[in-house]
Design a protein that fits this description.
By secondary structure, the protein is an alpha+beta fold. The protein has two domains: about 110 residues, Rieske Iron-sulfur Protein (3-layer Sandwich), CATH 2.102.10.10; about 180 residues, Naphthalene 1,2-dioxygenase Alpha Subunit, Chain A, domain 1. A seven-stranded antiparallel sheet has the order 11-17-16-15-14-13-12. Strands 5-6-7-8 form a four-stranded antiparallel sheet, with no helix packed on it. A three-stranded antiparallel sheet has the order 1-10-9, with no helix packed on it. Strand 2 and strand 3 form a beta hairpin. The longest helix has 14 residues. It is globular and about 80 Å long. It binds FE2/S2 (inorganic) cluster and fe (ii) ion. The site of fe (ii) ion has 5 residues, from helix 2.
Length: about 350
Amino acid sequence: MSDRFPMPMPYGWFCIGHSDELAVGEVRNIHYFDRDMVLFRTASGRVGLSHPACPHLGAHLGHGGTVQGESIRCPFHHWQYDTDGVITNIPYASRIPPKWEGKPCLKTYPVCEKNEVIWAWYHPEDEAPDHEVIALEEINDPAWTARQRFQWTVNSCPQEIAENGVDVAHFKFVHGMEAVPEGETTYDRHIRRSRVSGSRTVNDASGNEVRIDTRVEVVQNGAGQKWVRFSGFMDYLLQTLVTPVNDDSVEVRFIYIHQPYPEDSFQHLGMQFAIDSTNGQGGVEGDIPIWHHKFHLRTPILCDGDGPIMRFRKYFAQFYVGGPYPGEDDVPVDLEAVS
Ligand code: FES
Ligand SMILES: [Fe+2]
């Protein structure tokens, strides 16, 4: 916990990189969730994520460790471990120590790949995942081949960034746009969905006014997976992924997926405009200076023009082991009254 954020780190699946950033045979040191970890990809393409300390005599697997087939090999005495942390080879021993034969001894963490992203499961007490990363159908759609990726490091925490989406009043003052309505929202355990539809009038390439129906769907699946699906005169999907690095630092990744529109098309310009405004002052870069320095107030003073901030907090509270404010009463205000 940091001085600015009384909450512990939330548990969940979090993006720890793009799949194509980790080649077969590669071993990388990474640092998320306030821990050093070693990430590797085996010969068959499986991803492994482990504690860096070799359980033999403690050498660091991320400094000189190599992939051998389906295992990672320690640089010190060449013991090998599979992605479950089970010893697969000790080149100078007549047998694997019986106590550890077939049993994991290298500490590993749950990891998976979906939506072209590598996901790590973080849980402060090492409990197994209680939900899965949701696969997005557009990823494998042969028409949706365009990807654009962006990344920022922000001095903040996952809840603060997620809460920004329901803070409807700030859209006008930070982003210079009309308040974005929350839309129709449902909460189902770890999943929050909200949908807004409307219509806009825009000028097409020939200057004619065209009315376009638009639809925006936002889904949050646990603390670390969120996406926004836009439908209108161009359709696109935006994954907005926030991963804790330590108590007051997160990596934010935006991944846009869409059809490749011809360069001179209306949709191409529209897509570029959408990306520029979502990443720029109309979006993340408008928020970052606020996020960098703001405090999380357990009992904010809210007015009737604020969005459903406390309802959102109630939803997000489920991702904290021991509650969002450990040692204090769980619920700061009468949530029913504000939801
Ligand atoms: S310390 Fe890793 S094999 Fe000995
Ligand atoms: Fe914002």
